[in-house]
Amino acid sequence: MEIHLFSMFVLLIFFTSVTSVYSDSFFINCGSSVAVNDSTGRTFFGDVKPSRFHLHAHHSKVVTGPAPVSLYSTARVFTKPSSYAFDIRTTGIYILRFHFVALPSLPPLSEAQFNVSAAGHMLLPGFTVGKNATNLKEFFVDINSTGKFRIHFVPSVAVSAAFGFVNAIELFSTGLNFSKVQMKSNVLEKIYRINVGGMEVNSSDDPLWRTWVEDDQYLVSKSDTINAKFYSEEIKYYPQLGAAKPDDAPDFVYRTAKTLKNNGKYNLTWEFNATKVGVHLVRLHFCDIIGVNGPYLINVYINGKLMEGNLNPYTITYMNEPAVPFYRDYPHVEVGNVEMIKVSLEPVNSTGIFLNGLEIMLLKNGTALDPLDGDGSHLKVIVPVVIAAIALIVALIAVVLFNLRRRKSKSVEESEWGVISMYGVSSNHKSSKTSSSHASNLQNLHLGLKIPFDYIQKATNNFDASLIIGEGGFGKVYKALFKNGVKVAVKRSSPDHGQGLAEFQTEIMVLSQIRHRHLVSLIGYCYEDDEMILVYEFMEKGTLREHLYDDSKGIAISSNCLGLNWIQRLEICIGAAKGLHYLHTGSDRGIIHRDVKSTNILLDDHYVAKVADFGLSRLGHLEQAYVSTDVKGTLGYLDPEYYGCMQLTEKSDVYSFGVVLLEVLCARPVINRALPSEQVNLAHWGMICIEQGKVEHIIDPSIAGEVTETALTKFTEAAAKCLTEGSAERPPMSDVIWDLEYALLLQRAATEGEVPGDTMTDASLNMPMPGDSQLFSSLSFSDVNNDVTITSTREVSSQLKVEI
Fold first, then answer.
1. FRET partner for 729 with CA separation of 20 to 30 A, picked from 20, 107, 491, 671?
2. Neighbours of 523 (CB within 10 A)
3. Are the C-beta atoms of residues 713 and 719 closer than 8 Å to each other?
4. 240: Cβ contacts below 8 Å, ≥ 6 apart
5. Among 47, 247, 248, 595, which one carries the catalytic annotation?
6. Catalytic residue list contains 605
């Protein structure tokens, strides 16, 4: 009778746990309007007509696979940043799972590369499924407030595809607890989940639909061990006494164990590959199903370090009986150079040892959590805290509104930057000149982009000088290879290069709010122990300047080497112009690049141009002119009105781009002191030649035979408009794009034997207007040593240095 009552009590706990899961749960069949059941019997509802969640995907499509209809017969494909927003009603630890299956499609889903983030954390950076692969990614998320919970899908760079996809999503509350872990993240990623001493436990046999794999493949010395099984009694759950709950691991895990053949003679050791850099949590599950071999005193080692000594299962649960499960958490486990996590159990004084289950989780970098209480009180919504938070928000809004009124009279050069997240949410704050304030500002940046310094150090072989691919005002740029096979460019700050924390912050904040096919985007950054590092995707073809002329000699590159043909040059100019146009118009206030030059235009392996280096950029209402007291830029590209009258507008970028156009046409440095005085400055000399009709005297000889007269006329006309001395007379970038596209049209038409006249043809009238807004996370960087800072008009001559 007692056994029967106890069994009913255990079943009641189990079903209460499962009920709590369904109290706040979302099972989504992505890309479908119908509900389907999976192998566990759960119903996944389509996302076409959602309820209790919202799909924000204006640029998505549905991919359908072969029949029959199942959970994996459809996928939601995202071509631009998209998100799911869930209405959360209860707080606590949630399990978040993503199902990815590469259905046949064009382009293939196996080529998709994208980022997935949630709760302020980058969950899957640069994720790709690969060919003929199925992936299930699982996370534990501590959701400590009700309301909207958002999951973001952001396409990242791939050579042939910039899109993301997902087949199914699970998000549901659990009875799990990580309160014993003093960790600095509210998101954990499941890396390993092992059933020790038993067979694989599939998702149908787990209350939270987890899969537990066998441990033998990870065991170091199998010959010294035996598997133990438990059949006779019930597993006894006493969570109020410190024991485990049914949610922590299923009965099938606690009913099997691994132990030694001979007590006290050997160790139990498992080794796991751990290629993901970061801090891990190791959770060990114990349940004495052996009984006759006790008492037990166990030493626990991880990577050779003693984590806990003399562990006694019967003092953990305060129950002097077997079959009472519990677990132990060991946080802050870091992967060393061997890229392995080694877990060992050692018997003390010839006592027995055993283990039932093992989990390894990766702590995702992000907003820090307070130390958690054992009673779960951190999960409760406390009314006084909410009231205080509301009052603080109201006060902050009042301060922001007051500062906004004051800033109306301030220039773009003098205004403080707001903290801009990856998705465009900003909050302004008053900056301080102290280092502690700067550090605080950096802590508020998008934390999912942070990369540990030791990871970057390893990828660059401790910043090996042979990997340097550039050097500029911020510091040296290194080529590196991340563990996932992605090539990156690493820009490391150097104190002797002039630019510093302000430029570092600006670059991160600008790149966190923009995405465009012709603008480079940030992979991540590092700010540790005064190290300031920016990481971009590596651009195979380097800078535009490298393909035009030898900067050290000031001579054009021969056409049979790295030189670009005329069509390529036109397409590169159009791409760069589109990037600048998006900067000027892609946000409410617009962004002025302020350092447009040929070394800040990068080329990928298909010679697609992307504007780079936003460390000197400024945010502001571009219809206004701003007085600047700190003029910055590069000699030869600087707008004369900018450094002469201290007037900064987006037309300063237009002028600099006009110089780039001449540089592309002539394949010579913008400043060359070896030439006669009237030819030293390319912009000055180029305008003289254009006005006198002598452009043929300065054109790059390697393309002189390719350029048609009509295309050349239109191209030089665009350059001359950009180089107009008064900024008000210069065209917007949209007009520049139109002129360049028309020049390309004229060139191609003439090449094909259909030379248009001086007037616009029907084809040109149908030509699409500029403003390409396709989101394309092209990530890269390269830099050079020609950056200067001008502090006043008197110092223009003395401070502008040029390296030839």
1. 671
2. 27
3. no
4. none
5. 595
6. no
